[in-house]
């Protein structure tokens, strides 16, 4: 039993270390941030691209059928074709994910740049000056004054 207690104690110390907790927080925030970027691409950027192009450009539904199942006459959508066993090159989905990545990398770059700039400003600020000790004769006079008061 004492070895298991030591094991659990060691595990607890590992799990509550700052770096492990920071990593967990980073992963959770990163996942949420990824959803924000996905939404930004799907709900903001792609509609703007569609508007500028003058039509509906939905990259997620762009694909190339490499081989369809023999005799398949069903719907020609990506989901239906893959369910039917077709070999489909989903280049549109790749383009969408690539746009997500580029946006995410750009936003992270801006965040890191802002943090580094703030650190440089903080390092450039002069440290508060330590109070200069009074000259020795003034300190001696104060000591004499304090002794006389007592």
Automatic annotation (TrEMBL):
Principal cellular location given in the protein's record: membrane
Keywords: Cell inner membrane, Cell membrane, Ion channel, Ion transport, Membrane, Transmembrane, Transmembrane helix, Transport
Signal peptide: none
Source taxon at top rank: Bacteria
InterPro entries in alphabetical order: MS_channel, MSC/AndL, MscL_channel
Molecular function (Gene Ontology), one example: mechanosensitive monoatomic ion channel activity
TM segment ranges: 14-33, 45-68, 88-112
Any one of the GO CC terms: plasma membrane
Bilayer topology term: Multi-pass membrane protein
Location in the cell: Cell inner membrane; Membrane
Family the entry assigns: Belongs to the MscL family.
Subunit note: Homopentamer.
Protein name: Large-conductance mechanosensitive channel
Organism: Bordetella genomosp. 13
Gene (name only): mscL
